Description:
Largest sheet: 3 strands, antiparallel
Number of helices: 4
Structural class: alpha+beta
Radius of gyration: 15 Å
CATH topology: Rossmann fold
CATH superfamily: Vaccinia Virus protein VP39
Strand order of the largest sheet: 3-5-4
CATH architecture: 3-Layer(aba) Sandwich
Number of domains: 1
Number of strands: 5
Distance between the termini: 42 Å
Helix content: 25-40%
Order of helices and strands: HEHEHEHEE
Shape: globular
Amino acid sequence: MPLLSQYARKQKLSYFTRELPKNARILEVGCGDGWFGVQLKSAGYKNYVGLDLKGPADIVGNILECFQEFFDLLKPGGLLMLTSPVPHMDWACKLLERFGLNQKRTSPHDHLLYFRNVRMFEPLEIKIIGGMAQWGRFLKPASC
């Protein structure tokens, strides 16, 4: 595992599990190699399900349509947690991958978006990590 990826994974685990109750029901969409789920389970989180495509999809629609599905799945007051490259810095991620400093992507990054454009959820926090990655925690409003 490349050095930057190891560091980012540790930070990501800490960021996303703070204030997350051990009995939380967790669905990870786009779980890749399943690393996050393994870490959650070893930390005592029992209600975890990870989903990912095997191989590239034939068609990827408007990524914002996925947020409607997330919205429908989450209960009121539920938490949506996201990670993604910052769209205008994806070139830097590719460069780090080329030099073996960051893990290789498991899918093309053809549909990146800025988290500030996620409108149907209430943003709790959006962090920019190293200028290249964005991590976000969003709340489904309780009154929907």
